Every structure is written in structure tokens, then in C-alpha cells.
Amino acid sequence: MSNAxxxxxxxxxxxxxxxxxxxxxxxxxxxxxxxxxxVAAIDDGEVSGEDAETLEGLLELGLQSGRIRAHYGPGGEQxxxxxxxxxxxxxxxAESAREVTAALRALEGRELSSxxxxxxxxxxxxxxxxxxxxxxxxxxxxxxxxxxxxSA
Length: 152
What we know:
Strand order of the largest sheet: 3-4-5-6
Strand content: 25-35%
Structural class: alpha+beta
Order of helices and strands: EHHEHHHEEEE
Shape: elongated
Distance between the termini: 46 Å
Radius of gyration: 19 Å
């Protein structure tokens, strides 16, 4: 399988249990079938394509809602986070965080002149940080943190 993500150890246990639990509660035959395919893929030890997308959604919801931590404890949450970071959307979020960190590093050693957080919509914000002649603006929303602009 191309772009397959290996699922093993504690990550496999949590992903499998969560997929089975959600499948048992799900209504809609199409979604139940997707979850059955996901369970089979996790059982085989790797996910890709539509199975990876389904698993991303399942992990995102479980992690954001606190369900995974509540049902599988802190260790289960860490296992799920580890797996999520290896899936495409999780890797994108991690890359976005690295880009934001790199942009903010341009401000290191400079005296802060202003910091402003602006609400731009439901769950969406812009954070602007000025230091010396540099200003970094970040967008913070449900998709994560991204560099909006860097200006001198």
C-alpha cells in the first residue's frame, strides 16, 4: 500500500477499540461499512487512503472531546496522539506548528512592543506579535496555528 501508516502496539489497541466502539453506536450503513473496513485495516496493522481519513476523523473527535483520555487514560491518549501525528492531517498540523515556531523565532532577542489577539469568527483568532521592526501575525482556528504574515 502506498502512503500506508503502520498501526501497532498501544496505538493499535486504542484505535481498534475506538473504531469498534463507534461502529457499535453508529447509525447509517455507509458509515458503519467504512468503520468495518477501518477495523479490518487496523487489524492488518496498517491504514491508507479512505481508511486513514476515517481514522483521522475518529481520532480528532475522540481527542478533542476528551473521550479517548476518559476511556483509555493518559497513556491511551498519548498513543492516539502518536498515531494521529503520523496520519496526513496530523502531519500537516505538526508541520504548521514548526512553521509558526520558525516565524516566532525571528522575534527572539528583541524587545516586545505589542501583542494583540483579535477574534475573527467562531473559534478563529489572529495573534499579532511585534518586536522591534518585525511583526508576526498568526491565525489560530480549528485547523491549527498558521503563519498569516511576517513583516518588517
